[in-house]
Write a structure and sequence with these properties.
This protein is of the alpha+beta class. It is built from 20 helices and 20 strands. The strands form five sheets. The protein has a seven-stranded antiparallel beta sheet with strand order 1-19-18-15-14-9-8. A seven-stranded antiparallel beta sheet has the order 7-4-3-11-10-2-20, covered by helices on one side. Helix 3 runs antiparallel to helix 4, helix 7 packs antiparallel against helix 10 and helix 14 packs across helix 16. About 55% of the residues are buried. The structure holds 6-diazenyl-5-OXO-L-norleucine (DON). The site of 6-diazenyl-5-OXO-L-norleucine (DON) has 13 residues, from loops.
Amino acid sequence: MKKTGSLVLLLLVLQHSFGQFLQENGIDPYHYTSQKKLIANKGAVASAHPLASMVGTAILKKGGNAFDAAIATQLALAVVYPTAGNLGGGGFLVGQLKSGKQVAIDYREKAPAAAHRDLYIDENGKANTDKSQLGHLAAGVPGTVAGLFATHQFATFSFADLITPAIELAERGFCISAGEARGLNAIQTDLKKYNTHTPAFVKSEGWKEGDTLRQPQLAATLKRIKEKGKAGFYEGETAQLIVEEMKRGNGIISLEDLKKYEAAFRTPHRFSYKEYVIVSMPMPSSGGLLLNQMMKMVENRNLGKMGFQTAESVQLMTEVMRRAYADRAAYMGDADYYPVPVREITEAAYLKKRMEDYDPTKASDSKIVKPGVPLKKESEETTHLSVMDSEGNAVAVTTTLNNSYGSRTVIGGAGFFINDEMDDFSVQPGVPNMYGAIGGEANSIQPGKRMLSSMTPTLVLKNGKPYIVVGTPGGTTIPNQVFQTLMNLLEFGLSAEDAVNKPKFHHQWLPDELVTEKGFPEAVKMSLQNMGYRFAKERSGIGRTELIRVLPDGKLEVIADGRGDDSAAGF
Ligand code: DON
């Protein structure tokens, strides 16, 4: 008896140090480093945080498939990457099953039932984007937990097993990185302003690298999900806590909104590019459609020959960006509410016409380049993770709270940030959102509607098999980044590492300016300036791309973006 007692005690002590799952799988949340590149034989995960990638890989090693790993990785990110990993946000998954079946799961947030077109218009008729970006009213009905349960039908482990690592990380805590400390310190004032209680993220003396972040309230929320499934979030105590928080801060999400939330299965947006098939996210993301338009506009123009980041190639790519993003502003929004002319604006004849006024010697003008006219009338702070397993399943997930740390409001008693995704709607025609994007009727606010996204989780297939898994955060820069990463690989022949890490550029029609990332070649900038391009202030970083590519010998080349704490893991 005594012996059993001490064994139990020993086990308890062991468990107490950093949780059984983490311990058994050699994951030490107090000592970890990022791995930027790796070659894996069987399965791999690239995500925004080393601990999340390690959790996903541990699930793969135990025999889980890429969907199991994607679920466990997202749940771990909800704990260790509060800037964008989430329970209170939404996302998209694009995947291919080993059977060859493709899936797109839409767990984008929705406008609450009490939302309306003029929700953010003040008494003088002016848009108040503070309210769509910060605090309770900025929040859409969160979709992530529903999305994870929708994904679970393709998984093999119990949901309880997949959520356990996240619970351990939330309960026992983990050491934060220098980047996370900086991120949390930057929002301390907002945290005080937009919260009705003191969340775990507040630290009066400031955060520093290596500090332990424990999130007991989040752990309790995760446990309710573990016990009650989807209802552990959308009903009962968690739902009650969300609604009470909303009431304290003049938010409008109701119990009914939560109870009614469902993830949606969509038909992936597919198109061919040379010998490849691209599988990406359809509406309510503009990502797949923009990627389609842009890749098709360059497909027959010898982009590869122009060379990586020459004035010639950057100029061509900028002009296709301009034209595609003009269409985004006019035509794209939740296709459940607005007839998005997807087929019409991807037709070869339409895209050819779009490029008729393209002049390789000078900048077009966004005042003249308007959204295209379909030839026929229509008929019909984010984070990305890429996962592949040894069975042929491939999963790309991009998920978001919108801004980093979302609305900056943490649900009292439930411990997670709620999103500020409502700002992705066009709050008023012509009024730019936080990414400078404008829109109109297609993306106006309506109850139950999903706000237009740019997230572009994408697979590239070669001979029908997954070849590349890719995606990134970055607001409206996302489709352009995925476009560039793919062109870097498929046209310019860059290494996977360079395709991810070389400086990126961005044009979104309006504002009519080119955004470049630090390190973008000055000489190219000069040539483009001479052709009439205006440049915005250079950005220190654009996105965080996570890429997996299958090598000719079947091994997996895994690249985690060099810009953050992003990390690759695999075996
Ligand atoms: O859905 C979208 O397009 C945006 N809410 C994504 C936000 C994002 O990427 C923030 N990260 N930098």
